[in-house]
Amino acid sequence: MTPGSGTASSSGVGTQVVRPGVVLLGLLALAINLRAALAGYPPLLETVRDDLGTSSGVAGFVQAAAVLMMAAGSFAGSALGARFGRERALGGAVGLVALGSAVRGIPALASLIGGSLLAGLGIGLAGVLIAGVVKEHLAERAGAVTGAYVVSMMVGATVASAVAVPLATALGGWSFSLAVWAVPAALAVAVWVPVARRTAVPDRAAARAPLPWRHGFARLTACYQAGTSLLFYGWLTWLSPYYEGQGWSPQRAGLLLAVWSVAQIPAALLAPALAERRRRWRFWAGLTLACGVVGTVGAMLLPMPSGPAPWVWAALLGIGVGAGFPLGLTVIAWRTPDGAASAATSGLALGVGYVSAGLGPLLMGVLIDLTKGFPAAIAVLLAAAALQAWAIWRIGDRPAA
Predict the structure, then answer these.
(1) Is the pLDDT of residue 131 over 50?
(2) Which residues form a coiled coil (predicted)?
């Protein structure tokens, strides 16, 4: 039985035709905000810690808690979409991102934590709801569309991290730099409102699609997302510190992280589209994961801080994590029968993935402290890659049973 089969989609009464191009433009506008609000915080972390007088642990907890709230939003997203309609709920989710960003404009620890939790919840909800909207409106080009909106997310995150410090200087404080991301989120909601208003009001009596914990395909996608999410957030957190430990300056290590980020963009855009051409999902998922594994092993065994190797490892790592997330969402869009099932399966997969993303880097930090080095922490990433590889093999290219 396919995940969510036997349950109603969000369709009800009052449906009007919405052009696919309009839906796509709206999704791209919303997606810009699904990493930007949180990506602007790490460059300001030390400034925030000094200004508020908090420990490094508390400052780091802000981001970890936001990621765990993304998991909570992912688990709740499909039910919220069934209750209010995926398109309406999606607008509300990005509205939460705008609200959370605005709350962080108050320079206090409570507002920083509260606003980050709100933003994380909105991001988690939106990620699941977007998957259902793609299945409902753009299923014929699910791979290309998924790649496009993931690239939009990456662009938003890259810009947010790049301008965080200059904005803080120009606007007069770190809190204003964080709050400014309420503006594009609110504008994106305004762009999305016409789409939401022209879609169906859900049938309140219709059954909801529960999270498909018992379905084999859904569990495999959860394992896949757990692996790729841990690889992404693990390297996001520790790539720069790892090479600083090799004797690099913070500025050079930051540039290496930028190369890692840039390499993700073409991978996220091209890999799902190439997989879609002949539905060779396992080949492309395996190939891009192999790039990430080579980069991970290379960084661990041959860091070679004085040569070009780190830049090669960073680019390979970026290809692996850049393609991993959209390929996971693409296979869900292909294998589920309708928007409700797609949202439910995505909710389970993303929720499990964000739990890994929130806890994995913390585990790596503990191992670094205990072992006084990075090999044990990097081994955690290799274990995540092994889990992802197993899921890729089991999912394969055949339709779900």
Answers:
(1) yes
(2) none
For residue 2, pLDDT over 60 is answered with: no
Looking at the structure, do residues 84 and 148 belong to the same domain, yes or no?
Answer: yes
Q: Average of pLDDT values for 114-130?
A: 92
Q: Is the pLDDT of residue 139 over 80?
A: no
The C-alpha atoms of residue 233 and residue 209 are separated, in whole angstroms, by: 29
Place of tokens 């990433």: 381
Specify if 179 maps to a domain.
yes
pLDDT band with cut points at 50, 70 and 90 for residue 203: low
The whole-number pLDDT of residue 16 equals 56
Domain end point (choices 183, 203, 223)? 203
* Residues 150 and 29 sit within 8 Å (Cβ to Cβ): no
Which two three-digit tokens encode residue 271? 């890999």
What average pLDDT does range 228-250 have in this prediction?
A: 86
Asked whether 94 and 126 are in contact (CB, 8 A), the reply is yes
Torsion of CA 22, 23, 28, 31, to 10 degrees: 150
Q: What is the CA radius of gyration of the chain?
A: 20
The CATH number covering residue 331 comes to 1.20.1250.20
Specify the pTM. Answer: 0.79
Cα→Cα distances 194→5, 94, 298, 339, 384, Å:
29, 15, 49, 20, 41
Rounded distance between C-alpha atoms, residue 143 and residue 391, angstroms = 19
Q: How many helices (H) and strands (E) does the chain have?
A: 15, 2
Of residues 20 and 272, more confidence is placed in 272
Cα–Cα distances (Å) from 268 to 104, 131, 198, 261, in that order, read: 30, 16, 30, 11
12 strand-pairing partners: 202
Task: Give pLDDT, residue 17.
Answer: 62
Provide the 3-class DSSP secondary structure of residue 201: strand
Same-domain status, 81 and 147 = yes
Candidates 164, 145, 137, 149; CA nearest to 37 is 164
Per this entry, what is the length of the chain? 401
